[in-house]
Amino acid sequence: MRILGIDPGLANTGWGVVDFDGHRFRPVSYGTVNTKPSEKLELRIAAIASRIAEIAKEYEAEHLSIEDIFFAKNEVSAIGVAKVIGAVCYAAFQANIAVTMFTPLQIKMAITGTGKAEKRQVQEMCRLLLGLDKIPKPDHAADALAAAVCYGNTSATMGKLGIVK
C-alpha cells in the first residue's frame, strides 16, 4: 500500500510517501510545500492543496494520513492549519483517496509506543523503521513520514485484530 503522510502547516506543509507491505516500510519520497506570509491566505491554502493533489497523483497514493490539530496554544495559527487540513482533505476526496487523521499523541504512540515521546525520539524511530541513514530534513517532512508510518502501523494492527476501518 502506498501512503501519503501530511504534516499540515500554512507556511510549511510536510509530505512523505511511504510504501508498506504489511510488514516493512519503504520510503519513496518526501519534501515540503512552502508558502509566503505575504501572499493572500486563500492563495496559500489553494497552493498547498493543489500541490498535495499533484503529489498524490504523481506517486499514486492509495491513502492519505494527516496529523490533526490536538491542542492549540496559538489560536490564530491553529485556524490557518485547520483551513489547510480541510483543503487537503477535500483535495484527497476529489482524487478518491481515503483520509485518516491522527492526533500527535496517536502518531507518537504508533511510532514509539509512548505518547510522551519527544519529537527527536519520534523522528529517530521513524528513521529506523524506514531504513534511512539520517533523519529527513526539514522537520515537517520527517513529521509527514511519521504520519504515514502511523497509518501503516495502525492499519496493520487493526487488520490483525480483524477490525475494519
Shape annotation: globular
**In CATH terms, what is the architecture?**
2-Layer Sandwich
| Helix-strand topology string | EEEHEHEHHH
Q: Stretches where pLDDT falls below 50 for ≥5 residues?
A: none
- The total strand number stands at 5
Summarize the main sheet. Answer: 5 strands, mixed
What does this structure look like?
This protein has 165 residues and is of the alpha/beta class. The chain has a single domain (2-160), classed as 2-Layer Sandwich (Nucleotidyltransferase, domain 5). It is 49% helix and 21% strand. The chain has a 5-stranded mixed sheet. Helix 2 (75-94) links the parallel strand 4 and strand 5 (98-102). The protein is globular, with a radius of gyration of 15 Å. The mean pLDDT is 91.
Supply the key terms.
single chain; 165 residues; alpha/beta; Nucleotidyltransferase, domain 5; five-stranded mixed β-sheet; 5 helices
Write the layout of secondary structure elements.
Blueprint: E1 2-7, E2 12-20, E3 25-34, H1 41-58, E4 63-67, H2 75-94, E5 98-102, H3 104-112, H4 119-130, H5 139-160
Please sum up the structure shown.
With 165 residues, the protein is an alpha/beta fold. The chain has helices spanning 41-58, 75-94, 104-112, 119-130, 139-160; strands spanning 2-7, 12-20, 25-34, 63-67, 98-102.
